[in-house]
User: Fold this.
Amino acid sequence: MMTSVNKILKIIDQIAPFETADSWDNVGLLVGNENQVVNRILIALDLTEEVLNEAIEEGFDLIVTHHPIIFSPLRKITTADRIGKILIETIQNEIAVIAAHTNLDKVFSNGINRYLADSLELEHLQILMPEGENLGYGYGHGIVGNLGSVLSFEEFISKVKKVFQIDHLKVSNSSDDKKVRKIVISSGASSDFITQAIITQADVFITSDLKYHECQNVIGTNLTLVDVGHYESESVYLDHFKAIIDDRISDKNYDVFTKVSETEHPIIKHL
Assistant:
């Protein structure tokens, strides 16, 4: 069955309701016509030059990203500006763009942090900072959970590297004899939640984009900070996101092909 941008919007809204996004965020349909026919969907963290070229070369008519390409107010859209150039090319090639950002971070059942918690095999999961219980679905920033058994810090770090598919990470306020059981996870840049992680008496807070003075805030507490990298904290979710979308597309009997970008890569390298 033929489908449209609007129908895909509704599917994503069912997965992670757009109304749950933070007020400062920019989610939903950012570029394009909601009535445009959709045959091929490309999924990525960001709409970069590489992702756009991949979409053009392979005939995708919709790109679904986590981070919104339009975030700060735009005073002009020209080819002299990187974002403007990408947007113009997107429009010229009739490619629509949907962003699912903090709504995908915050939803409990299908979101990024729930996926990470499940991948780490955490139990007794709770939302770190719950919101909107009266809306009938659980959402909020971060997830708290326990490992099935106590791990040494070395064992835990090995597990984290495997889940996030990384060889390097940054750690603050750790010790070789530390034992790990209670974990807080919040993907992306989540230093705002360090205080709440301390309150939960967690052993470790996994996040990204931590700054020097933010790391000082845990000195004298039991909390160890683990920074896995922004891209790395979210990219591992994309195949799972695709699978969820595919299930909803199949239920609707829509004739749509989906793919996770093969050209997207971290912008920060560890040498």
